[in-house]
Amino acid sequence: MTSKNKNMSKIHPPQQLHIPVLLDSVVQMLDPKAGESYLDLTAGYGGHAQAILQKTGAHATLVDRDENAIKHLKTLGLKDVTLLHQDFATAASELADRNCTFDLILVDLGVSSPQLDQAERGFSFRGHAPLDMRMDSRQEKTAAELVNNASQDELVDIIVRYGEEKPRVARVIAQAIVHERPISTTTELADIIKQHIRSWGKRIHPATRTFQALRIATNDELGQVEKMLPQLPRLLNPGGRVAIISFHSLEDRLVKRYIKSQKEMGLEAELEPILKKPIKGSTTDVHNPRSRSAKLRGAVKIKT
Questions:
Q1: Using one digit for the tens of pLDDT, what is the confidence trace for 4-13?
Q2: Which residue among 13, 15, 18, 111 is least crowded, i.e. fewest CB within 10 A of its CB?
Q3: 16 CB-near residues (< 8 Å, 6+ apart)
Q4: What CATH number does residue 7 fall under?
Q5: According to DSSP H, which parts of 75-220 are helical?
Q6: Do 235 and 100 belong together in one domain?
Q7: Which of 170, 186, 219 is the last residue of a domain?
Q8: Is 123 in the same domain as 212?
């Protein structure tokens, strides 16, 4: 990035439902210029998109699997924008198959603030709601179906793999879930977990990792990332830049490995990392609580 970019003034998005994570760092990394095309594979409520479109003034494609996000994007009055109500892996694949290419791509892998704050969505144990957790309401599988139908061993695997919970704790949680089924609400599940592992001395709510695991499994979040990453070189124009924000180690590990694998390909590589190390929200975006666990990585397309 040029010194001009490093010294650019802070960007203040309009008042909105969701404060975009690492906004200034994303804009600096993508370095948008007038006339450059933009693809936002997880547009959410448009915070990043608005800031970037202010600089490009060109066509943009905004994708989100959440119907509420798409409805909100339609109210922003954005010009020359195509909206796609799809998950980002499907959108990336279909756009690549149609030979659509872009100068700038952003992938924000986090759950949006409205999804967390709207209790009825069932993402959080802090509000009483159906155990839903679907990012796309058109999807049939809910977290409740997973909780009530998976075997005890399957639940242990999900909680360990996606929640990064200790195996002995995961076994206690899975056994309690199976014993107490059927379970239909967020608070019911959270209370069951708390009752059975309160003696483990956790500093965070004992249901935190299980809820993360169920959300990831319900929405196939890691599978989405694995399918999307190989499409990036196909979607980028030569010299095009991609920025990816992850929020937990499982996502970041996939992104890091993919960019590293590109670097190790030498002359065959299509992407080159923009920075050696990720930009961390905990030190760069300290005023946004939702940025604390965020990591931003980026790459540029080098092959024609």
A1: 333 333 433 3
A2: 15
A3: 45, 46, 47
A4: 3.40.50.150
A5: 88-97, 113-117, 143-149, 152-163, 167-180, 186-197, 208-219
A6: yes
A7: 219
A8: yes
Residues 202 and 82 in one domain: no
**Same structural domain for residues 106 and 126?**
no
* Domain ranges, residue 33: 3-114+222-301
pLDDT digits (tens, 9 = 90+) for 185-198: 999 999 999 999 86
Give tens-digit pLDDT for 144-190.
Answer: 999 999 999 999 999 999 999 999 999 999 999 999 999 999 999 99
Q: Which of 176, 195, 219 is the last residue of a domain?
A: 219
- Position 275, amino acid: L
Number of alpha carbons in the 13 Å side-chain half-sphere of residue 199: 3
d(CA 128, CA 195) in angstroms, rounded, equals: 17
pLDDT at 17 over 60: no
Mean pLDDT of 111-122: 62
H or E element that contains 48: helix 47-56
The answer to whether 45 and 108 have CB atoms below 8 angstroms apart is: no
C-beta atoms surrounding 107 within 10 Å: 24
Tokens representing residue 10 in the block: 């802070």
| Residue 129, both tokens | 């709601």
* Token pair listed for 182: 């059927």
Q: How many domains does the chain have?
A: 2
